[in-house]
Write a structure and sequence with these properties.
With 244 residues, the chain is mainly α. The longest helix is centred in the middle third of the chain and has 25 residues. Bound molecules: zinc ion (ZN).
Length: 244
Protein backbone atom coordinates (compact mmCIF):
# COMPACT_ATOMS: atom_id res chain seq x y z
CA UNK A 1 0.00 0.00 0.00
CA UNK A 2 2.81 2.35 0.89
CA UNK A 3 4.40 1.50 -2.44
CA UNK A 4 1.15 2.38 -4.23
CA UNK A 5 0.89 5.74 -2.46
CA UNK A 6 4.53 6.52 -3.23
CA UNK A 7 3.90 5.51 -6.83
CA UNK A 8 0.84 7.77 -7.03
CA UNK A 9 2.85 10.75 -5.75
CA UNK A 10 5.70 10.03 -8.14
CA UNK A 11 3.23 9.56 -11.02
CA UNK A 12 1.69 12.93 -10.27
CA UNK A 13 5.06 14.65 -9.96
CA UNK A 14 6.58 13.10 -13.10
CA UNK A 15 3.53 14.03 -15.19
CA UNK A 16 3.84 17.67 -14.07
CA UNK A 17 7.51 17.53 -14.97
CA UNK A 18 6.73 16.10 -18.42
CA UNK A 19 4.25 18.90 -19.07
CA UNK A 20 6.79 21.41 -17.78
CA UNK A 21 4.63 22.48 -14.90
CA UNK A 22 7.15 23.37 -12.29
CA UNK A 23 4.77 23.30 -9.38
CA UNK A 24 5.31 20.27 -7.16
CA UNK A 25 2.54 17.67 -7.52
CA UNK A 26 -0.07 18.34 -10.20
CA UNK A 27 -1.28 21.79 -11.17
CA UNK A 28 -1.53 24.22 -8.30
CA UNK A 29 -4.43 26.03 -9.94
CA UNK A 30 -7.50 25.01 -11.91
CA UNK A 31 -6.96 25.03 -15.69
CA UNK A 32 -10.33 26.66 -16.24
CA UNK A 33 -11.02 29.15 -13.44
CA UNK A 34 -7.40 29.56 -12.26
CA UNK A 35 -8.50 29.28 -8.66
CA UNK A 36 -5.65 28.37 -6.33
CA UNK A 37 -6.06 24.75 -5.25
CA UNK A 38 -5.84 23.80 -1.59
CA UNK A 39 -4.04 20.90 0.10
CA UNK A 40 -6.90 18.41 -0.38
CA UNK A 41 -6.91 19.01 -4.15
CA UNK A 42 -3.23 18.11 -4.30
CA UNK A 43 -3.48 14.61 -2.81
CA UNK A 44 -3.04 12.09 -5.66
CA UNK A 45 -5.94 9.71 -6.47
CA UNK A 46 -7.94 10.56 -3.32
CA UNK A 47 -8.62 14.17 -4.35
CA UNK A 48 -9.99 12.98 -7.68
CA UNK A 49 -12.59 10.83 -5.94
CA UNK A 50 -13.42 13.36 -3.21
CA UNK A 51 -14.09 16.04 -5.86
CA UNK A 52 -15.65 13.48 -8.26
CA UNK A 53 -13.26 14.46 -11.03
CA UNK A 54 -14.42 18.06 -11.09
CA UNK A 55 -12.97 21.38 -10.02
CA UNK A 56 -14.22 22.21 -6.51
CA UNK A 57 -14.65 25.88 -7.41
CA UNK A 58 -16.07 26.06 -10.94
CA UNK A 59 -17.29 22.48 -11.50
CA UNK A 60 -15.33 21.98 -14.72
CA UNK A 61 -14.34 18.38 -15.43
CA UNK A 62 -10.65 17.82 -14.64
CA UNK A 63 -8.26 16.23 -17.11
CA UNK A 64 -8.09 12.51 -16.49
CA UNK A 65 -4.40 12.30 -17.31
CA UNK A 66 -3.37 12.89 -13.69
CA UNK A 67 -5.52 10.13 -12.26
CA UNK A 68 -4.30 7.78 -15.04
CA UNK A 69 -0.66 8.58 -14.32
CA UNK A 70 -1.11 8.26 -10.54
CA UNK A 71 -2.96 4.95 -10.53
CA UNK A 72 -0.86 3.31 -13.24
CA UNK A 73 2.46 4.35 -11.65
CA UNK A 74 1.25 3.03 -8.28
CA UNK A 75 0.11 -0.28 -9.78
CA UNK A 76 3.26 -0.61 -11.91
CA UNK A 77 5.58 -0.23 -8.91
CA UNK A 78 3.62 -2.92 -7.06
CA UNK A 79 3.79 -5.20 -10.10
CA UNK A 80 7.59 -4.85 -10.27
CA UNK A 81 7.90 -5.39 -6.53
CA UNK A 82 6.02 -8.69 -6.68
CA UNK A 83 7.68 -9.89 -9.92
CA UNK A 84 11.39 -9.39 -9.42
CA UNK A 85 12.52 -10.28 -12.94
CA UNK A 86 15.58 -8.12 -13.08
CA UNK A 87 17.38 -5.38 -11.22
CA UNK A 88 14.39 -3.61 -9.65
CA UNK A 89 15.96 -0.15 -9.44
CA UNK A 90 16.41 -0.21 -13.20
CA UNK A 91 12.77 -1.18 -13.78
CA UNK A 92 11.43 1.38 -11.25
CA UNK A 93 13.39 4.16 -12.91
CA UNK A 94 12.22 3.29 -16.42
CA UNK A 95 8.61 2.88 -15.22
CA UNK A 96 8.25 6.28 -13.56
CA UNK A 97 9.40 8.01 -16.77
CA UNK A 98 7.69 5.75 -19.34
CA UNK A 99 4.17 6.22 -17.96
CA UNK A 100 4.08 10.06 -18.14
CA UNK A 101 5.83 9.88 -21.54
CA UNK A 102 3.12 7.52 -22.81
CA UNK A 103 0.41 9.99 -21.71
CA UNK A 104 2.27 12.93 -23.25
CA UNK A 105 2.88 11.05 -26.51
CA UNK A 106 -0.79 10.06 -26.76
CA UNK A 107 -1.90 13.67 -26.35
CA UNK A 108 0.76 15.53 -28.34
CA UNK A 109 2.38 12.91 -30.61
CA UNK A 110 5.90 13.73 -29.52
CA UNK A 111 8.41 12.98 -26.79
CA UNK A 112 10.05 15.88 -24.94
CA UNK A 113 13.86 15.67 -25.22
CA UNK A 114 14.54 16.83 -21.69
CA UNK A 115 12.56 13.87 -20.32
CA UNK A 116 14.78 11.50 -22.32
CA UNK A 117 17.77 13.34 -20.89
CA UNK A 118 16.42 12.94 -17.35
CA UNK A 119 15.81 9.22 -17.99
CA UNK A 120 19.36 8.82 -19.29
CA UNK A 121 20.87 10.71 -16.33
CA UNK A 122 18.94 8.81 -13.65
CA UNK A 123 19.81 5.48 -15.29
CA UNK A 124 23.48 6.47 -15.50
CA UNK A 125 23.59 7.52 -11.84
CA UNK A 126 21.80 4.42 -10.54
CA UNK A 127 23.87 2.06 -12.71
CA UNK A 128 27.34 3.53 -12.59
CA UNK A 129 28.34 1.34 -9.67
CA UNK A 130 27.31 -1.86 -11.49
CA UNK A 131 29.12 -0.82 -14.64
CA UNK A 132 32.28 -0.11 -12.70
CA UNK A 133 32.08 -3.52 -11.02
CA UNK A 134 31.58 -5.27 -14.35
CA UNK A 135 34.46 -3.41 -15.93
CA UNK A 136 36.99 -4.37 -13.28
CA UNK A 137 35.71 -7.94 -13.05
CA UNK A 138 37.00 -10.81 -15.18
CA UNK A 139 34.76 -10.99 -18.25
CA UNK A 140 36.22 -8.23 -20.37
CA UNK A 141 35.60 -10.11 -23.64
CA UNK A 142 31.96 -10.73 -22.83
CA UNK A 143 31.54 -7.07 -21.89
CA UNK A 144 33.11 -5.95 -25.15
CA UNK A 145 30.81 -8.29 -27.09
CA UNK A 146 27.74 -6.90 -25.30
CA UNK A 147 28.79 -3.32 -26.05
CA UNK A 148 29.46 -4.22 -29.68
CA UNK A 149 26.08 -5.94 -30.04
CA UNK A 150 24.32 -2.98 -28.51
CA UNK A 151 26.11 -0.53 -30.81
CA UNK A 152 25.15 -2.65 -33.79
CA UNK A 153 21.52 -2.73 -32.65
CA UNK A 154 21.45 1.06 -32.21
CA UNK A 155 22.73 1.39 -35.80
CA UNK A 156 20.02 -1.05 -36.95
CA UNK A 157 17.38 1.02 -35.12
CA UNK A 158 18.57 4.12 -36.99
CA UNK A 159 18.56 2.26 -40.32
CA UNK A 160 15.01 1.17 -39.54
CA UNK A 161 14.15 4.84 -39.00
CA UNK A 162 15.81 6.18 -42.16
CA UNK A 163 14.68 3.38 -44.48
CA UNK A 164 11.08 2.84 -43.42
CA UNK A 165 10.16 6.30 -42.14
CA UNK A 166 7.40 4.60 -40.18
CA UNK A 167 8.58 5.56 -36.71
CA UNK A 168 9.21 8.92 -35.05
CA UNK A 169 12.77 9.86 -34.17
CA UNK A 170 11.74 10.40 -30.55
CA UNK A 171 10.80 6.72 -30.39
CA UNK A 172 14.21 5.75 -31.82
CA UNK A 173 15.94 7.82 -29.14
CA UNK A 174 13.81 6.21 -26.42
CA UNK A 175 14.50 2.72 -27.80
CA UNK A 176 18.25 3.48 -27.93
CA UNK A 177 18.35 4.60 -24.28
CA UNK A 178 16.42 1.51 -23.18
CA UNK A 179 18.76 -0.69 -25.21
CA UNK A 180 21.85 0.76 -23.52
CA UNK A 181 20.60 -0.10 -20.04
CA UNK A 182 18.41 -3.19 -20.46
CA UNK A 183 19.77 -6.69 -21.06
CA UNK A 184 19.73 -7.61 -24.77
CA UNK A 185 17.09 -10.42 -24.53
CA UNK A 186 14.82 -8.07 -22.56
CA UNK A 187 15.18 -5.38 -25.22
CA UNK A 188 14.58 -7.71 -28.18
CA UNK A 189 11.42 -9.04 -26.53
CA UNK A 190 10.35 -5.46 -25.73
CA UNK A 191 10.83 -4.33 -29.34
CA UNK A 192 8.85 -7.17 -30.89
CA UNK A 193 6.04 -7.15 -28.34
CA UNK A 194 5.71 -3.36 -28.85
CA UNK A 195 4.99 -3.96 -32.53
CA UNK A 196 2.79 -6.96 -31.77
CA UNK A 197 0.57 -4.95 -29.41
CA UNK A 198 0.79 -1.87 -31.65
CA UNK A 199 -0.21 -3.88 -34.72
CA UNK A 200 -3.18 -5.47 -32.98
CA UNK A 201 -4.28 -2.07 -31.67
CA UNK A 202 -4.03 -0.60 -35.19
CA UNK A 203 -6.32 -3.28 -36.55
CA UNK A 204 -8.86 -2.48 -33.83
CA UNK A 205 -8.56 1.30 -34.41
CA UNK A 206 -8.78 0.99 -38.19
CA UNK A 207 -11.91 -1.11 -38.00
CA UNK A 208 -13.95 1.84 -36.77
CA UNK A 209 -11.82 4.84 -37.69
CA UNK A 210 -10.35 4.76 -41.17
CA UNK A 211 -8.65 8.18 -41.27
CA UNK A 212 -5.98 7.12 -38.81
CA UNK A 213 -2.60 8.49 -39.94
CA UNK A 214 -0.28 8.39 -36.97
CA UNK A 215 -0.42 6.56 -33.70
CA UNK A 216 1.73 7.24 -30.63
CA UNK A 217 4.24 4.47 -29.99
CA UNK A 218 5.22 5.09 -26.35
CA UNK A 219 1.95 3.69 -24.89
CA UNK A 220 2.71 0.43 -26.72
CA UNK A 221 6.34 0.47 -25.57
CA UNK A 222 5.05 0.92 -22.01
CA UNK A 223 2.51 -1.89 -22.34
CA UNK A 224 5.16 -4.17 -23.87
CA UNK A 225 7.57 -3.26 -21.05
CA UNK A 226 5.17 -4.70 -18.46
CA UNK A 227 4.34 -7.74 -20.58
CA UNK A 228 8.07 -8.51 -20.77
CA UNK A 229 8.51 -8.03 -17.00
CA UNK A 230 5.66 -10.48 -16.35
CA UNK A 231 6.86 -13.06 -18.87
CA UNK A 232 10.61 -12.51 -18.72
CA UNK A 233 11.53 -15.95 -17.42
CA UNK A 234 9.31 -17.69 -19.96
CA UNK A 235 10.64 -15.51 -22.80
CA UNK A 236 14.24 -16.27 -21.88
CA UNK A 237 13.56 -20.01 -21.88
CA UNK A 238 11.45 -20.03 -25.05
CA UNK A 239 13.51 -17.84 -27.33
CA UNK A 240 16.98 -17.84 -25.91
CA UNK A 241 17.20 -21.41 -24.64
CA UNK A 242 17.85 -20.26 -21.09
CA UNK A 243 21.50 -19.52 -21.91
CA UNK A 244 21.33 -15.85 -21.09
ZN1 LIG B 1 -12.00 25.57 -11.65
Amino acid sequence: MLLFITGAFIGSFMLCLTYEEWSLLRKSQCESCHHQLNIIDLIPVLSFFIRRGRCHYCGVKLSSKYIISEISTGCALMLIYFNPALDNTLLYTITIILIPLAIYDTERMKIPNFMLLILMLILLITNIHDYYNEMISFNLTINMMTILYKLLMIILLHLFFFLTNSIGYGDIKLFSILLIFLPIPFFIALFFITYLIGGLACIVFLSYKSNLKRIPLVPFITAAFFVVILLYDAIKKLYFGGFV
